[in-house]
Amino acid sequence: MKRDVAQVLRRHTERLMAIPGVIGTAESECSGHPCILVLVLQRTPELERLVPASLEGIPVEISESGPIRALDLAEPPPVG
């Protein structure tokens, strides 16, 4: 099933990422079963309407993550 989720995610990521407010997609586990996770800046009724509940029979979950920034590996994080 994991490979099936990856294939479905690959087929739909471009369309999901085109939805305003969506900042990422991932394979995940929801209630003990494989699912597709859609990461959003802020969960809104509009996003809940636009993001499908499932894709090709695989459940889709929305997760509010806020902004995602790349980690600057050139400068170590402050200690203490």
Key phrases:
alpha+beta; 32% strand; 4 strands; 80 residues; GMP Synthetase, Chain A, domain 3; four-stranded mixed beta sheet
Name given to the CATH architecture:
2-Layer Sandwich
Number of strands: 4
DSSP strand content? 25-35%
Helix segment count? 2
Arithmetic mean of pLDDT: 89
Describe this entry's structure for a reader.
It is a single chain. This protein has 2 helices and 4 strands. The chain has a 4-stranded mixed β-sheet, with helices on one face. A hairpin with a 2-residue loop joins strand 3 and strand 4. The N and C termini lie far apart (44 Å). The protein has one domain: GMP Synthetase, Chain A, domain 3 (2-Layer Sandwich). With 80 residues, the protein is α+β, with helices and mostly antiparallel strands. The model has no long low-confidence stretch (mean pLDDT 89). The radius of gyration is 15 Å and the shape is globular.
Question: Secondary structure elements and their pairing?
Answer:
Elements: H1 2-17, E1 22-30, E2 33-40, H2 45-50, E3 54-55, E4 58-64
Parallel strand pairs: 2-4
Antiparallel strand pairs: 1-2, 3-4
Provide a brief overview of the structure.
The protein has 80 residues and is an alpha+beta fold.
